[in-house]
Structure formats: C-alpha cells, structure tokens
Amino acid sequence: LSEDSECATTLGTNCPQSARASWQHPGQLIHKITVELQENGEAAPEYQHLLLELEALDRALKQLHTLQPAKHELLQLNAIRAIALSCQLPLQEFLGKISKFEHRLGVTNARDQRFRGLHRRMQWRLAYKDDVKKLRSKLGSFFTTISLLLMTQTVSSVTAAEHERDRTACTLQESILAHRRLIEDVKTDVGLSLAEQKKTKSQLQNQADSINDLHLKSKHISSQLQEEHALVQEVKSITVTTEKATRSILSAATDTLTQATLSLLTLRDLTVQLQNLVASFTKFTIEMRE
Asked: How far apart are CA 47 and CA 224, in angstroms?
C-alpha cells in the first residue's frame, strides 16, 4: 500500500480535513523525534529507552511494509498495517508539543547558543517527562500488539506453508507414483514389444532363408530348363534332319517300288505270253502226233 492509500485506510472519512492535510507516515514522525532527541546533547542520555523503542517500532513498521502476503493473508495484513498506522496520532501529538523548542533542541541548535537555551532545555525536560512516559507506554503497547500480530501472522503463514508443502509433497508423491507406474507399464510394453520384435525377426529370418532356398532352387530349375531346352532344340534339329532323310528314303523307295511294280507287270505279261506259248506248243505237239 502507498502512504496516501494507507492514510485513507487508517483515517477514513471521519478524519478532519486539517488532520488529513498534516498527516505524516509514522516512520517519518519516528525519524523526526529521533533526530530531535539525538540533537539534544543533554536530553539524549535520559531518553535512550525511548530512542530504542522508537527504533524497534520503526524496524517493525519497515518489516511490516516489506511483507509480501498471499491472497488469503492480504486482509489480515492490511488490518495489522492499519493498527500500526494508528500510532501516528500519539507521535504527532508528541512532536507537536516539542516543536516549539526546535530552535533550542533541534538541528538548528548551535554550540554558541547552548548556554542561552539552557533554561528552555530544563523547562522541556521537566514539563514533558510525563509525556515521554505516556508515549513510551503507548508505543510499547503498539509495539507489543504489532509484534504479537506479526508473530501470529508468521505462524499462520508458516502453518499454511507447511500445509501447502504437505499438499505439494502428496501431489508430487502421487505424481511420482503415477509416473513410476507409467514407466513400469512402458517397460512391460517395451519388453513385450522386444519379444514380439525378436519373434518377428526370427520369422522374417526364416522367410528370408526360405526365399534364398527357393531362389537357389529356381536357379537350379532354370539351369535344368535351359539344358532341356538345348536338348529339345537338338532333338528338334535331329527330327528335322531325320524327317528330311526319311522323306528322301521314302521317295527313293517309292521310285523303287514303282519300278519293281512295272517290272512285275512286265514279268507277268511275259509269264502269260510264255504260258500261251507253251500251251500253243503243247497243242501243236499234240496235233503233230495225231
């Protein structure tokens, strides 16, 4: 939260306009009061406890301002900041009371004026001793309340962080177990896949061997077919030659048979003529005998 928004949150609409106009952050007021007390050489030793309490309150306010709450812690932290900012009023009142002594106690105090302002310093130390006690009491109450609320906030944050860590650890453990189961399933699938691959590889190897055997057999059969083809060609050539020779022989035999037939026919005619001649001779002989 910015200082203006913190002022609006703390003072609200009920705060008078003059108060809102003169509103200062408690850290600024603490710084101014600390400077005033430290610059007062005589008053500083008597108000060391107030200085320490102011410094402790300032550290608590700075720590409160630098916190980065989670969403569920924002409302609680804003409430703590509102309580912390409420200490602005007693600081403003105390600073207003001692402001009239700034020329003797403030940063403009010069060494040559220390004796001339001694009466005013003694008057300030006697007049505002009770105011310092009241301021210390109020600041102690604010510091205790803020510290307690911060401790409660811290414990709540740590507890929430522990719960969140436990939930995250459970989620991570479940995720790890799920991934482990998934990895086991993948390993099982990979094992089965490797077995299937080995089986397929063996089958492919057997098929490759069978194909090689078939290839060798086909080469052998092809060689045999080539030899048989050459033999068939040779037989065909011999058959053609034999056919030609047979035709020549048959032609010669036919001519021979034709000539033999003609010779037989001629011989038959001669036989018939010879028979006729014998018959005629026989008849002639018979007739001659008669």
From this structure: 127
CB 26 within 8 A of CB 84: yes
3-state helix, strand, coil in the chain (%, to 5): 90, 0, 10
Mean pLDDT to the nearest integer, 31-38: 67
Residue 103 tokens, joined: 């020329």
Of the candidates 25, 18, 26, the one whose C-alpha atom is nearest the C-alpha of residue 55 is 26
Give whole-number Cα distances, 175 to 162, 183, 186, in Å. 19, 12, 16
Residue type at position 35? V
In the chain, what are the domain boundaries? 3-166
DSSP state of 22: T
Return the pLDDT at 191: 81
> CA-to-CA distance for 25 and 44, rounded, in angstroms?
23
pLDDT(18) > 50: no
Q: How many CB atoms lie within 10 A of CB 24?
A: 15
Whole-angstrom distance, CA of residue 134 vs CA of residue 49:
13
Task: Record the pTM.
Answer: 0.38
Q: What Rg value do the Cα atoms of the chain yield, rounded? A: 70
Output the DSSP codes for 24-93.
--HHHHHHHHHHHHHH-TTTGGGGHHHHHHHHHHHHHHHHHHH----GGGHHHHHHHHHHHHTTHHHHHH
Mean pLDDT of 214-233: 89
pLDDT digits (tens, 9 = 90+) for 261-283: 888 888 888 888 888 888 888 88
Model pLDDT for residues 77-128, shown as the tens digit of each residue = 777 777 777 777 777 777 766 665 544 444 444 344 444 455 555 655 666 6
